Amino acid sequence: MDFFATAAKGTEGALRDELRELRFRGVRADRGGVHFNGGLEEGFRACIELRTAVRVLMLLSEFDAHNGEALYEGVRAVAWSPFLSPKHTLAVRAACRSSQLTHTQFIAQKTKDAVVDQLREKFGARPSVNLDDPDVMLFVHLVRDKASLYLDLAGEPLHRRGYRTHIGDAPLKETLAASLLRLGGWDRQVPLVDPMCGSGTFAIEAVMWARKIAPGLARDRFGFERWASHGEEEAKKAADRRAEARAKILPEGPRIAGFDTDPEAIETARGNARRAGLSIRFDRRSIRELRPESDAGMIITNPPYGERLTGSRELYGDLGAALRRMHNHTAAILAGTPAIAHAIPLRPEKSLIVWNGPIECRLLRYSIP
Ligand SMILES: C[S@@+](CC[C@H](N)C(=O)[O-])C[C@H]1O[C@@H](n2cnc3c(N)ncnc32)[C@H](O)[C@@H]1O
Known about the structure:
By secondary structure, the chain is of the alpha/beta class. It has helices spanning about 10-20, 40-50, 70-75, 105-125, 175-185, 200-210, 230-245, 265-275, 315-325, 340-345; strands spanning about 1-5, 25-30, 35, 55-65, 90-95, 130, 135-145, 145-150, 190-195, 255-260, 280-285, 295-300, 330-335, 350-355, 360-365.
């Protein structure tokens, strides 16, 4: 089975490294995600264990789709009854580039028609469409007239870990925070602090990673658990994968803390940590008060920027001064504006482009002497 795990733009390298570390096979980074392969159980395991992936897709078929008819025939050639019965609901998402078919809505519609026509013929009734919470989600990607048809294993995107019901201003997606911890070079050993922690996403993801708490363990049900063919045998396999993940959890991890000047943010972060079942120190404190609390450590943060939060020059100056005090620490700053790098009186040893949704950002890495 060929799988494709999707990732936020710019974070594919983090997902590739994570897949390799977790011993998945055939790992190959691509635009927007990473390919890997294995049995269906490996797909289950990916949903449970991966922190940096947004979705896990399973390749069902690849075929020529230079026009609507070819697309329809290619989709109809797949046996759909293992996944869908007339009682199930489905949704189709389409993307295309460099192809003769250019309308994603048309591509999605044709694909859906081919699926439901096959099932109507077989059962005399057809599944219905549900765009919000489908039992089965299909992705069709057209590149140079070749269609790749994927089935989504995860269901809800994996950044919805479930611990964050209250969100602060401009929170980072959990999957992006996990990727930035990796790309920022954290070794999972030294103490870590987010001095502008907002809803606490970096700190929570850091504890989960350091203690090997698989993010998928908090989910009741994945997309694959809603397929028509998901019976007792598959349920047992999924339960085994969950048990294996649970067995890896470490009782303790390094010291991790989050600070913020906003009392509401601190309350939110504490509530999120509680819901994640973690005890993390979140204190109300300004970046001006940041001081080293250990011989070595890591700072990771995303300062306010952009439309939703207006970061001032003064604040960036305070951040720069604070970093200078953190001798023998490393820092990873997610900067949504060049003004942040300009205010930091250190030379970044690395600057990576990553996308926070539609915003192009830089992840700046510093080694502070
Ligand atoms: C972009 S948000 C961080 C979002 C966070 N990464 C999350 O996932 O929720 C920036 C945070 O910086 C905080 N902040 C602003 N000025 C600060 C200061 N002087 N010291 C500490 N925190 C500050 C804001 O209250 C806000 O929560």
